Amino acid sequence: MSTIHPTHLDGNPIQDLPLSALLQPASDIVKASGLESIRQIGFYHKKDFQFFFEFDAGRPTGEIRPMYPAMDAEELMAEGWEHLALEVHLALQKVTLVVRGYYFREPVPLDFHLMIQQGPAGYLKDTIAITDRRIQETENSSFKDLMEIRLKSGDPKYAGANDIYGSMTITRMIKILNRYLRDWTVSHRIIERH
Amino acid sequence: MIVLRSPGDGGYVDREQKVPLHELPNWGNALVVNTSRPFQVRCSIGDKSRTFFRFAKIPTIPVEFPVPELDAERYNMDGWDHLAITLHLEKDLASLDLQGRFGRDDNSLIVRARLVRNAVNETKEDKVTIEKKDGELPATSIFDLMQVRSKSGDPRYARFSDQYPLLDVEGVAAMVTRYVKELRSA
Q: Are A8 and A17 a contacting pair, CB within 8 Å?
């Protein structure tokens, strides 16, 4: 049985940890389970919540330990999300955060998908795709792009002054995303005709 | 795991005895208590085979549960277009639901089987229904399928080693597969 870092995993949901801190526990959890990878999916819908462990091939030959961020569902869903899946995928030396869902703020309905993959040397992938359902057009960007957007004063528009790309906690990232999405719906109220 | 003896002929292979259905609550009860709600384990076989656990909240204890050992490729080759095997675990109760479509043409069969057992091995439900294009066949049960014998006296759908009170998920799935395979070719 592999060792799971006790300070990161005591059977309770993780709070305020960056993806990089989850790398070693993720490897330990995956090794202990006997699987190649495990997807943890929290599905939020209004007042309903469901939590999934999902895997493709094989079957676990050992225990699976949950390692999932504790989110305030009410706070999360109040932002305009109709439904939201927050996924933390665990693999050997790889942790992937996926946020996908349907967001609606009058009059803009959008599908959102973010994927950030953490490897030992930093982020391996960072993509954001926002699809306006009214016109079925997708705008691609990244979390890095979003953090670099600045106000006229030079201050970051969505990130905080102390936020550092690559070492932010999941809850902090979600807060920034929510700010960005609120603005996105405002700036996309009018559909541009080409 | 115990390796059950094969009959030696008839094309059967050795099969490890898995955890009988009525013993699954022993594995699931702690999780039911921990999450205060029943939970499900589903193995789906089809274009994209996958397995998942579904909980009403995040468990705060390690999840240790004997996930059914199903060879997705084999079930695909047997003729299943798609098949979902779901275990629903409540306190001291395990329900096995098997639902799927057998065959990939217009004459495919819609198959549903349900076997429910409690922790003291009482069978609460046992039903198999098959829907053909021209209507539903009379319902049968896993118990009835186990009684069917070939002319030689050998069990027709069950394995020699299968015993009704000790049935496991893998055994039920294999038995139903043999039954629908024969129904389709009849």
A: yes
Q: Kindly state whether B124 is in contact with chain A, defined as any CB-CB distance less than 8 angstroms.
A: no
**Span A45-79, pLDDT tens digits:** 988 899 999 998 788 989 999 988 878 888 788 78
Record: contact B63-A57, CB cut-off 8 A: no
Query: Which amino acid, one-letter code, is at A130?
Result: I
Contact A51 B60 (CB under 8 A): no
Q: What is the ipTM of this complex?
A: 0.88
- Nearest chain B alpha carbon to A41: B54
- Provide CB contacts within 8 A for A74, sequence distance 6+: none
The per-residue pLDDT of chain A, averaged, comes to: 89
Q: Which residues of A touch B (CB under 8 A)?
A: 11-13, 42, 49-57, 59-60, 62-66, 68
SS3 B179: helix
Cα(B11)–Cα(A173) distance, integer angstroms:
57
When pLDDT is cut at 50, 70 and 90, the band that residue A193 belongs to is low
Backbone angles phi, psi at B171, to 5 degrees: -65, -45
* Residue among A110, A50, A54 nearest A80 (CA): A110
Q: Please list every residue in chain A whose beta carbon sits closer than 8 Å to the beta carbon of residue B74.
A: none
Query: In the block, which residue shows the tokens 């909240």?
Result: B57
d(CA B43, CA B63): 16
Poorest-pLDDT segment among A114-123, B16-25, B89-98: B16-25
What's the pTM value of the predicted model, to 2 decimals? 0.88
User: Which residues of B fall within a CB distance of 8 Å from A59?
Assistant: 51, 67-69
